[in-house]
Amino acid sequence: MTDTINENQKGIWQAVDLICDTPVLLILQSLWLGINRFDALHEATGLTKTVMSDRLKKLSNAEIISRRAYNTRPLRYEYIFQERGFKLFETALMMYRWENTWNPDGVSESFKLQHHTCGEYIMPLCACISCKDEVNPQDIDVTLNIDIANYPETYVKRRRQSGSAALKKEKPIIFQEIAEIFGDRWSTLIVRAAFFGVKRYDGFLKATNASTNILADRLSWLSEKGILKKQEYQVNPPRFEYVLRRKGLEILPILLFMLDWVDTVFAPNDPKTVTLRHTKCGSPLKVAPKCSHCGEILSFDELRLKTS
Ligand SMILES: [Zn+2]
Ligand SMILES: [Zn+2]
User: Which of 112, 116, 142, 256 is paired with 93 by a 20 to 30 Å CA distance?
Assistant: First the structure.
């Protein structure tokens, strides 16, 4: 039974495995800025050529990007988004917004997002496609369709890496802090579990399958980062629980778009991971990014990401 479930749920874990990786996020960021040749990508990301080649191959195998020759002698390639890559842009927009809110110094000064339709520099908002209203975490009714503790053994452990550790030199990074969190799958799993109402140590242990020392390390790291708040729920003996702070709650749109991406384009034949309802309008929740200025739903070709 468990094996069957795992087999059917491969999509979500393959996606997390692929996207929750700092070098991958750096490459995607550069591609969205219009940098798509190998040498230019190498220069823009500061990644080593070995790491670059490896991640470009993974992104190509997952059909997020494809490569095409722009020069035949010598043979040179550039990398372009496929349909799956365009759709993943929505998740990246929510990451951009989160970084702007929580690390405005680096992001707002280095990157601007222009909406071609209204001409303004804008912020992407998470909207419900039925009522077009902005979606707030408290207005979502979540039904979990899978047991999140069940995941394939192939979902291997990887050491936490910071954005800067993956780099040879300092570069402006849009996804600086969010890449640190999503770049560590245990933290991603803990944050996900917290959204599903898990508060206590044993609950996180069950929901993530992490070892006790990894879990303790990540819980205190996420608390230091201001994502979780450690609070005492029993005095004698002292017992603690972890709840999402505002900074953590605002990760929800990123998770919603990531789940939508997996369910609609990455693994459309898998059973849906979650069923969501927008309690404000009563409709099944389908998210879409909308413009903070004109309120229109945003699409990839109407946006320009600019460096300043
Ligand atoms: Zn709605
Ligand atoms: Zn607009």
Answer: 142
